[in-house]
Amino acid sequence: MNKFISILLMTVCSTALFAEETSSKEKSPLNYSLLTSLGYYPETTPKTGSSHFAGLSGIYDGVELVTEFNATYTMPFLKGSDELTADNHLTFNLGVELSPVTVAPLASVTFSPIAFLEFAIGGIIGTGWGLTDDIQGLAKLDESKPKYENLTPFAHWYFYTWASGCFMFDLAAVWEGDWHHVVATASYKVGYQKMTGTKSSVWTWRNTYGQASGWVYEQEYFLGYQMPLKVSTVGVGTTLWGNYQASDYGNFSRNYEGDFMTIDIWPMAEIKLSQKDILYVLADFRGRRSFLEKYKDDAHEPFMTKTGREWYFYALGFQWKHTF
């Protein structure tokens, strides 16, 4: 069972749309922000068989904390005189992501050629270490045991580079009014991920078990409503992600279905605590692999046979953004 604040950190452009009004008031092109994400995971014991729902089996299965510091510089680029291009810009971002078991510098460049479109490229390279058998930053699957074994920090690296496109819509753009902000986003991200220095086809990065090197994708769709209130946005989103090729998983590709699509559905709320502080709260319902065999642990999972999809309540997430 992966422990990963997946939605909070995979979001491509939804929060950018929510923050558009605030950011436009900032005069300085250089901004600093601190993003702290907390995930709480209840326990759900997987069930065997075809597609089904699984209920909670315990109130606690772990927590995860990730902090990200970013420095962002925004400059006008290809600006026009009409409403659709008046805010065209380039944004450069440098940051570092920290968790109890990983450290990872990151960088991205975002280009907005028109009010409702946004394109971005970026990358992250990180290393990690283990605290316990269940809390691992960087590890490979030893198929002979089977067990995830920690890799040497700063001798092995997780590498991920990506490009994305995002479409954004706000009803208030065509029907003016503080209470007309029905917002929607749709994004697609293509990436390549790799664990260096190991021949193992399956590995883990920051307790996300069952990963494989290769081309990956993320799709995200969100529909929400913005209000001139302290609870400024509510809505629901879905994220679909996975590997393009089952062969990335080597000998496990067929039975394990290496190109399986994981689906997350997440109702969320944005709360404006102050001019510089925003809190995001979401609940994550996930569709993962269902197996023929009785589930034992993460290390045995690639050896099992996928038979369908299991839906369950995955996590409760909180994200606090502070702008300096």
Architecture overview:
- By secondary structure, the protein is mainly beta.
- It contains three helices and 19 strands.
- A twelve-stranded antiparallel β-barrel has the order 1-3-4-5-6-11-12-15-16-17-18-19.
Question: Averaged pLDDT, please?
Answer: 91
**Largest sheet: number of strands, sense, barrel closure:** 12 strands, antiparallel, barrel
The strand count comes to 19
**First and last CA, distance:** 36 Å
Q: Sketch the topology as an H/E string, one letter per element.
A: HHHEEEEEEEEEEEEEEEEEEE
**How big a fraction of the residues is strand?**
over 45%
Give helix % range.
under 10%
Rg (CA only): 20 Å
* Helix vs. strand class: mainly beta
Reading side by side through the largest sheet, how are the strands ordered? 1-3-4-5-6-11-12-15-16-17-18-19
Task: Produce a short descriptive summary.
By secondary structure, this protein is mostly beta strands. It has helices at 6-10, 14-18, 20-23, and strands at 30-43, 52-53, 58-76, 89-99, 102-114, 117-128, 130-132, 135-136, 138-142, 147-150, 158-170, 181-195, 203-205, 208-211, 214-226, 231-243, 262-272, 277-291, 306-323.
